[in-house]
């Protein structure tokens, strides 16, 4: 989205507009969420230090406590467990298959510049392992789905199938 003006966005179409909104949301997310989000407490304390020194001290104390708590492993594990909930097998009662969507893959190139092999990206690996856990607990078959967005073989689905079959011992 470099060198992008609003007039150009209107001419290009809605996809570019969605991309700009996505970028703005990404920037706002980093400004609000920790660790930078907690920094706003310090900025507010600095602004209040002359007019309301008591409130500024409480804000600084709140910043230090929140920073200390969020940096502790047990707290981060507890917060992660609140967000990441492992599905239970009974939730898949009407399902016919486990569908795993790709999250990207990397390519290995040979010395001649041709693609030698592909490997799953980090997001794809997380999805593969989650799908494998669910497939083992439910006994449902696995379907992998993706394409080759960059035009190179192997497809992301082929890479996922290879990992599931060779590394995890599951049939796809």
Q: Based on the structure, what is the oligomeric state of the protein chains?
A: single chain
Low-confidence stretches: 1-14
Class based on secondary structure composition and strand pairing = mainly alpha
What letter string, H or E per element, gives the SSE order? HHHHHEEEHEH
The radius of gyration is 24 Å
Overall spatial form: elongated
Helix content: 55-70%
Give the integer mean of the pLDDT values: 81
| End-to-end gap | 38 Å
> So how many helices?
7
Percent in strands: 5-15%
The biggest beta sheet reads: 2 strands, parallel
| Topology, number of strands | 4
Strand line-up of the largest beta sheet? 1-4
Task: Explain what the structure shows.
The structure is a single chain. The protein has 172 residues and is mostly helical. Helices cover 56% and strands 11% of the residues. It is built from seven helices and four strands. The strands form two sheets. The protein has a two-stranded parallel ribbon with strand order 1-4. Strands 2-3 form a two-stranded antiparallel sheet. β2 (105-109) and β3 form a beta hairpin. α3 packs antiparallel against α4 (53-70). The longest helix has 19 residues, at 14-32. It is elongated, with a radius of gyration of 24 Å. Residues 1-14 have low confidence and may be disordered.
A few lines on this structure:
The chain is mainly alpha-helical and 172 residues long.
Key structural traits:
172 residues; mainly alpha; two-stranded parallel sheet; 7 helices; 4 strands; elongated; disordered N terminus
């Amino acid at each position: 989205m470099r060198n992008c003006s609003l007039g150009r966005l209107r001419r290009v179409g809605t996809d570019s507009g969605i991309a700009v909104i996505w970028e703005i949301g990404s920037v706002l997310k980093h400004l609000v969420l920790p660790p930078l989000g907690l920094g706003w407490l310090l900025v507010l304390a600095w602004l209040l230090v002359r007019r309301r020194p008591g409130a500024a001290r409480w804000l600084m104390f709140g910043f230090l406590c929140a920073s200390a708590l969020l940096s502790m492993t047990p707290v981060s594990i507890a917060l992660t467990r609140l967000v990441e909930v492992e599905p239970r097998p009974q939730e898949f009662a009407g399902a016919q298959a486990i569908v795993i969507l790709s999250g990207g893959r990397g390519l290995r190139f040979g010395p001649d510049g041709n693609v030698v092999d592909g490997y799953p990206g980090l997001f794809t690996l997380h999805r593969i392992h989650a799908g494998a856990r669910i497939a083992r607990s439910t006994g449902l078959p696995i379907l992998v789905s993706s394409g080759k967005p960059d035009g190179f073989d192997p497809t992301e689905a082929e890479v996922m199938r290879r990992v599931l079959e060779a590394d995890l011992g599951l049939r796809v």
